[in-house]
């Protein structure tokens, strides 16, 4: 006897609308329809071989959901993931996933196993662990990621893994302007052939409708706000510590319990990457960054690190306190480059990170078991 199919996402979505937790949007309803269809196909995949010998269907195509910032992509992804009818599923931020892939590749190369190449071994291991991979905020900036994504995703899909991803950019705009982009083009082709492309064309940035709960963003040029920022940022004494990032240690100059404090140059001026920011988000539930400057194209590397930091802290439901030279949307002054688009996402997320809903989620995280970090002697 087959298990009962999971509730349709459309029913769950309308229930949330009725409860006043979200605002109904026609574009979101269309995206829900596509996700519902995929749920039905996943449910069909779970059914055992029919008694008269007919095999189950081939694995369904994945889904690539893209649209402007703050349109509800993550909310829809979370609803889909919760309803997905498989225990072998995983939802992760794309930065975290690729950091893990590179760590596995490094370990595989060091092991020197014979047989398939390291990337094939890593893909096979991932496919054994999960049948559904859900990525939030698929974005590619690193050439190391760009050069392996086509082979990695092709191997996962061939092994029957279904991939669902959200992104701010349509596939053709991924890694736009990136170095050696021709090496990345097979990945775009793979996405367009093996995933349904759905645009979420909602008309409103739903994050901007959330009320500000408390001041966590301070403008440096305002003397009164700058004074409040110093009082808030240095209310407690700090000590040196260090956290593990793979096999190395990242020194933190100022920490107090689960709070870490940085100047902008310390956290975005140095060549840190997603792995460092993921480790910070795991070890601390509150991060303070002071003196965020206006940036331009010449400082795009710092802007990119800042955007990655915001993305990872947002995904971890960490509390972020900032002092800056300008409001988030005006922190990057350039006319082109992928950073222009992505700073808009960071600004939208920083707006939501001031809201009561977000801070309630942060408060809930504070009651989770504390992550152990190494202390400096």
Summarize the entry for a quick read.
This protein is α/β, with parallel strands linked by helices.
Protein architecture, described:
By secondary structure, this protein is of the alpha/beta class. The chain folds into 2 domains: 9-199, P-loop containing nucleotide triphosphate hydrolases (Rossmann fold); 207-366, no CATH class. The protein is 44% helix and 18% strand. It has 14 helices and 13 strands. It has helices at 9-18, 26-46, 73-83, 94-111, 118-129, 143-146, 149-158, 185-194, 223-233, 264-268, 274-283, 300-315, 338-352, 356-366, and strands spanning 62-66, 89-93, 132-136, 162-167, 195-199, 217-219, 239-245, 248-256, 259-263, 286-292, 295-296, 319-324, 332-333. The strands form 3 sheets. Strands 6-12-10-9-8-7 form a 6-stranded mixed sheet, sandwiched between helices. Strand 8 and strand 9 form a beta hairpin.
Name the features.
ATP binding, 2 domains, disordered C terminus, P-loop_NTPase, 13 strands, Rossmann fold, ATP-binding, alpha/beta, ATP hydrolysis activity, nucleotide-binding
* Percent of residues in β-strands: 15-25%
Q: What is the CATH topology classification name of the largest domain?
A: Rossmann fold
Percentage of residues assigned to helices: 40-55%
Question: What kind of sheet is the major sheet?
Answer: 6 strands, mixed
Which structural class matches the secondary elements?
Answer: alpha/beta
Query: Can you count the beta strands?
Result: 13
CATH homology group of the largest domain: P-loop containing nucleotide triphosphate hydrolases
Number of helices: 14
Number of domains in the coordinates? 2
CATH architecture of the largest domain: 3-Layer(aba) Sandwich
């Amino acid at each position: 006897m087959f298990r009962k199919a999971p509730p349709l996402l459309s029913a769950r979505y309308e229930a949330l609308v009725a409860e006043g937790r979200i605002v109904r949007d026609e574009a979101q309803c269309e995206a829900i329809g596509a996700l519902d269809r995929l749920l039905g196909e996943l449910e069909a995949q779970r059914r055992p071989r029919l008694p008269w010998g007919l095999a189950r269907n081939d694995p369904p195509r994945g889904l690539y959901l893209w649209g402007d910032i703050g349109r509800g992509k993550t909310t829809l992804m979370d609803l889909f993931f919760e309803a997905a009818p498989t225990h072998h599923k995983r939802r992760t931020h794309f930065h975290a996933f690729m950091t893990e892939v590179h760590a596995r590749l490094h370990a595989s190369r060091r092991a020197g196993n014979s047989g398939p190449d390291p990337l094939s071994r890593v893909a096979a291991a991932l496919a054994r662990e999960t049948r559904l991979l859900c990525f939030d905020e698929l974005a590619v900036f690193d050439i190391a990621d760009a050069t392996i994504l086509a082979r990695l995703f092709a191997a996962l899909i061939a092994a029957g893994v279904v991939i669902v991803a959200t992104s701010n950019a349509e596939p053709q705009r991924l890694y736009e302007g990136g170095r050696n982009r021709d090496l990345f083009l097979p990945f775009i082709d793979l996405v367009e052939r093996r995933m349904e492309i759905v645009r979420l064309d909602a008309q409103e940035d739903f994050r901007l409708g959330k009320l500000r709960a408390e001041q966590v963003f301070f403008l440096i040029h305002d003397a009164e706000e700058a004074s409040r920022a110093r009082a808030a940022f240095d209310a407690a004494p700090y000590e040196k510590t260090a956290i593990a990032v793979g096999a190395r240690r990242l020194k933190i100059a100022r920490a107090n319990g689960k709070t870490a404090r940085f100047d902008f140059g310390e956290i975005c001026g140095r060549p840190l990457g997603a792995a460092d920011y993921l480790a910070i988000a795991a070890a601390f539930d509150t991060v303070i960054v002071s003196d965020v400057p206006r940036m331009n194209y010449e400082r795009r590397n710092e802007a990119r690190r800042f955007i990655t930091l915001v993305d990872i802290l947002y995904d971890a439901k960490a509390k972020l306190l900032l002092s800056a030279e300008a409001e988030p949307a005006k922190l990057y002054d350039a006319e082109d480059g992928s950073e222009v688009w992505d700073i808009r996402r960071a600004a939208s997320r920083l707006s939501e990170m001031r809201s009561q809903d977000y801070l309630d989620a942060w408060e809930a995280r504070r009651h989770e078991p504390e992550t152990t970090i190494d202390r400096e002697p």
